[in-house]
Amino acid sequence: MTEQASPPRTSDARFYLLACALGILTGAIGTLFHLAADQLLAWHRTMVAGPPTAVSIGLAAGSTCAMVVAAVYLVRRFAPEAAGSGVQEIEGALEGLRPLRWKRVLPVKFFGGLLSIGSGLVVGREGPTIHIGASIAAGLSDMARPGLVERRGLYAAGAAAGLAAAFNAPLAAVLFVIEETRTQFPYTFRTYMGVAIAATLSTVLTEEMAGMGPDLAISVPGLPPHYLIAFAGLGAVLGLFGYVFNRLLLWSLDGVLWIGRTTSPYLFPAVWGLLIGALIVVFPSATEGGEALILDLVQENWTVAGLFLLVALRLATTMGSYASGAPGGIFAPILTMATCTGLALGSAVSVFMPEAEHLPVAFAIAAMGGLFTSTVRAPMVGVVLVLELTGSFELLLPVLATCIVSNIVAERLGGRPVYEQLLERTLRLAGTPRPDEPGEHLPVQLGWDGRRND
Fold first, then answer.
1. 254, 428 in Cβ contact below 8 A?
2. Residues 382, 241: one domain?
3. Mind telling me which InterPro entries this protein's record contains (predicted)?
């Protein structure tokens, strides 16, 4: 039996230079994407500003409908894999189960993402930037032709750089690769360092272009340790919420797919665009990704009933927006719903703890990590992401307790990571199910030095 040849290897210096270029390009393009999306969304808001009238509602509904349909057309016509978040596509590419057609995905994700975010759909910017980063990595790999291990390591580094650019959170981006793609990432010293380099340089470009500091700066003083029991209870609620969220998301995708097959693939996006457009005028808090709304929520005095109503509305609009087939992520909508839930539960609990003046806001911050954890099933990413986003490092223990309990409850309920389920659904629809045995999965066959173990 002949010995199987090792995959071609790239020198350390060359690989690290590729990681540097990847981080710089992803940071620049990702930040440009964010700034352009913010400008388009601001223009859209200005166009329909003022008290609700038949004219303003009609104008908003029509413009949103046109933008959503255009985004879905770009996806369906040129790059179907650019729909939704794209994280599952990257995980599939790391396993060798999905192609990463960067020449198609990169422009569709960029311009389609601008249309979907600018339209007011309830989607996040992190999904497009993560997919954009991995696509840039694929382009660099085609030019530099590194070995298979390094190529897939660059895919992961591009994804990390995209997440870092989205939230100005480099450490969470590195942890995301380690924790979320732990079964697909070809873990070697060089690929790990490549992820760290790309995420760091992407953040540098983001801060140079868009400013420094946490994206969602929220100041909350620390809390005594005996309050941790309350945060554990919050984690239990969010564990259930995340489990339900994942089930509803898959159900929504299947429902919209059935509608498209029985009527037209553009019927639901058009109708949903009309609805979201009307809501932009009538009840704008139920639309858009929600980053700006988070800051407004922690500063305004919403009633508990109003917050729970907002959670229900945003849950519905998130499901429809993601299922429409337009490019966009779910991180930002999840963080916004978590903020509403945390504020509502924190306000209720503070009735019994009147001495804890800042408990509702602390609950809101911890809830972001808890709901992220129960859906994505990456608790350490949830902790670090929330702390980097808000700058509330004094809440490390409360956030950690919330995420741990949320993860345990989601596991006990039988919940699975949302991107794992989305990838399986994609493979099933494509007629290429995941192999039963490890087979050629890189993490099974590669050692620390990147060479095959067989």
1. no
2. yes
3. Cl-channel_core (IPR014743), ClC (IPR001807)
Here the CATH number for the domain that contains residue 69 is 1.10.3080.10
In a domain, 5, yes or no: no
Domain shared by 230 and 321, yes or no: yes
Same domain, 208 and 118: yes
d(CA 293, CA 14) in angstroms, rounded, equals 43
Whether residue 137 sits in one domain with residue 250: no
* Beta-carbon contacts of residue 77 (< 8 Å; ≥ 6 apart): none
Q: What is the 3-state secondary structure (H, E, C) of the chain?
A: CCCCCCCCCCCHHHHHHHHHHHHHHHHHHHHHHHHHHHHHHHHHHHHCCCCCCHHHHHHHHHHHHHHHHHHHHHHHHHCHHHCECCHHHHHHHHCCCCCCCHHHHHHHHHHHHHHHHHHCCCCECHHHHHHHHHHHHHHHHHHHCCCHHHHHHHHHHHHHHHHHHHHCCHHHHHHHHHHHCCCCCCCCHHHHHHHHHHHHHHHHHHHHHHCCCCCCCCCCCCCCHHHHHHHHHHHHHHHHHHHHHHHHHHHHHHHHHHHHHHCCCCHHHHHHHHHHHHHHHHCHHHCCCCHHHHHHHHHCCCCHHHHHHHHHHHHHHHHHHHHCCCECECHHHHHHHHHHHHHHHHHHHHCCCCCCCCHHHHHHHHHHHHHHHHHHCCHHHHHHHHHHHHCCHHHHHHHHHHHHHHHHHHHHCCCCCHHHHHHHHHHHHHCCCCCCCCCCCHHHHECCCCCECC
What's the Cα-to-Cα distance from 198 to each of 26, 40, 124, 205, 332, rounded to whole Å? 8, 28, 21, 11, 22
Number of domains comprising the chain: 2
Residues spanned by the domain of 59: 12-213+435-443
Same domain, 117 and 247: no
User: How big is the chain by its Cα radius of gyration, in Å?
Assistant: 21
- Kindly state whether residues 203 and 274 are assigned to the same domain: no
The per-residue pLDDT of the chain, averaged, comes to 89
Within a domain: 219:
no
Do 423 and 439 sit in the same domain of this protein? no
pLDDT in tens, 414-441: 999 999 999 999 999 988 776 653 434 4
**Residue-level pLDDT at 8:** 53
Residue tagged 């729909």 (tokens): 83
C-beta neighbour count of 13 within 10 angstroms: 8
| pTM across the whole model | 0.90
Tell whether 325 is covered by a domain.
Answer: yes
List all residues 6 or more positions away from 400 whose beta carbon is below 8 Å from its beta carbon. 383
Please write the tens of the pLDDT for every residue from 176-209: 998 988 888 888 899 999 999 999 999 999 999 9
Q: Look at residue 1 and tell me if it is in a domain.
A: no
